[in-house]
Amino acid sequence: MYKCALILAAGQGKRIKSNIPKVLHKVCGKEMVNHVIDNMRNAGIEDVNVIIGKGAELVKDYTKDRKVFYSMQEDQLGTGHAVKCGKDFLQGKDGIVAVFAGDAPLTKIETINNLMEEHISKNNSVTLLSAYVKDPTGYGRIIRDGDEVLKIVEHKDCTEEELKVKEMNAAMYCFDIKELLVSLEELSNDNTQGEYYLTDVIGILKSKGKRVGAVVTDYEDTIGVNSRAQLAEAEEILRNRINNIHLDNGVTLIDPKTTYIGTDVQIGKDTIIYPNNIIEGKTIIGEGCTILQNSRIKDSIIEQGVEIQASIILDSKIGEKTTVGPFAYIRPDSVIGKSARIGDFVEIKKSIVGDNTKVSHLTYIGDAQVGSGCNFGCGTVVVNYDGKAKHKTIIGDNSFIGCNTNLISPVEVGNNSYIAAGSTITSKIEEGDLAIARAKQRNIKGWVNKKGLMK
Ligand code: UD1
Ligand code: CA
């Protein structure tokens, strides 16, 4: 059976009070609309069409890696109208379409699969997802006659009786494509909000004697984010889910409540994560690592047995058994070797640092290629910027860089060479040489006394 998906993401989201479209707000580090796209793909749906409108260019930009189609909804006249704007995408297709709201990121893959299986096995025209909730304020209500679903009524259009219904509409449906296209033509906007509601399609299909089904799931699956409070609620639910997966996989989280791990992060077993860590993007952490308190790691590869403390690591790679921090800042495109040491107040930018090299304190390394087995004294600065352009520094293996050295780029330091502390290096040092580049010391006898400064 052919399957495709429509994701509704054209609204601004007034209730979230934001300058950017609601669906671009992040939950556990990923935009809500991208969660929904990924959920569809994980449920085996390849063809995904996103309905865009408010902030269309931004939404396109944020979803561009995911290879989806787009339809434009110029004016946001309601969810039914939004689906109608996807007509070109649906026309001529034969099969089922999953229609999901772009502001509901938490649906489990098994729930989406259940919805589609129920739809296909019961030969339904539409199958909707619902949940029972203590306080359904704001949600559409599922109106049933016994077991049968009759229609959905939006909160603002409910009678006193209908308001008492606790079964809410998740705004996640599976439709027969042809039946949906026909019914969309019959929608009207004769309701409290003057909008074309997608929810009315359910009643339309029912009144035509078509098969309408429902799958009930738990509320957490269905949460739609309309406000900042619901955004925080969604964040907490997903955070717990993600953390539980890592706990199940053999990762120790000392305090899951203060551990923030993105949806797509992978962590090996026996890694221990201390409180207040943020691990984001496509980060992969190996086995047996220790991530001590207060680090942020984004889109990075951390090999096994690494120890990181109170540091920031962005788009970089850290080799096995290396230690980082406290208070190190490793900026994008850096590759640190194995059993290396990047110590306190060290900043590394777009540089390669070899195995066993020690950069223990107060050092800046930018646009450099550093060999293995080197030792950096405290306070070394790679002077990579001349006010106009960035230049490259190359340092060979087993070099010793004395404390407070300046390496004026572009410059080259050979293998097995030494630099005396306090040197400002401007020209190449050959292998095996010592460079000293500082003024000779001069002592002036009795100067303090002569100046009357002796205490
Ligand atoms: C919708 C459902 C409601 C359900 C709730 C679940 C309708 C009429 N109501 O209400 O039954 O309980 O979701 O969360 O469908 N959108 C467009 N174009 C539009 C309007 C909306 O693309 O013209 C998009 C929005 O960007 C959003 C999604 O559709 O991602 C849902 O819209 P929203 O206004 O949040 O609907 P709800 O009021 O939450
Ligand atoms: Ca909503």
From TrEMBL:
Binds 1 Mg(2+) ion per subunit. Mg(2+) binds at D103, N226. Acetyl-CoA binds at N384, Y385, A421, R438. GO terms for biological process: cell morphogenesis; cell wall organization; lipid A biosynthetic process; peptidoglycan biosynthetic process; regulation of cell shape; UDP-N-acetylglucosamine biosynthetic process. Residues 1-228 are annotated as: Pyrophosphorylase. Its main location: cytoplasm. Signal peptide: none annotated. UDP-N-acetyl-alpha-D-glucosamine binds at residues 8-11, 22, 73, 78-79, 140, 154, 169, 226, 331, 349, 364, 375. Its cofactor is Mg(2+). One of its GO terms (cellular component) is membrane. Its EC number is 2.7.7.23, 2.3.1.157. It catalyses: N-acetyl-alpha-D-glucosamine 1-phosphate + UTP + H(+) = UDP-N-acetyl-alpha-D-glucosamine + diphosphate; alpha-D-glucosamine 1-phosphate + acetyl-CoA = N-acetyl-alpha-D-glucosamine 1-phosphate + CoA + H(+). It is found in: Cytoplasm. Residues 229-249 are annotated as: Linker. Residues 250-455 are annotated as: N-acetyltransferase. It comes from the Bacteria. HAMAP family: GlmU (MF_01631). Homotrimer. In the C-terminal section; belongs to the transferase hexapeptide repeat family. In the N-terminal section; belongs to the N-acetylglucosamine-1-phosphate uridyltransferase family. Catalyzes the last two sequential reactions in the de novo biosynthetic pathway for UDP-N-acetylglucosamine (UDP-GlcNAc). The C-terminal domain catalyzes the transfer of acetyl group from acetyl coenzyme A to glucosamine-1-phosphate (GlcN-1-P) to produce N-acetylglucosamine-1-phosphate (GlcNAc-1-P), which is converted into UDP-GlcNAc by the transfer of uridine 5-monophosphate (from uridine 5-triphosphate), a reaction catalyzed by the N-terminal domain. This is Bifunctional protein GlmU. It comes from Clostridium vincentii. The lineage of its organism: Bacteria, Bacillati, Bacillota, Clostridia, Eubacteriales.
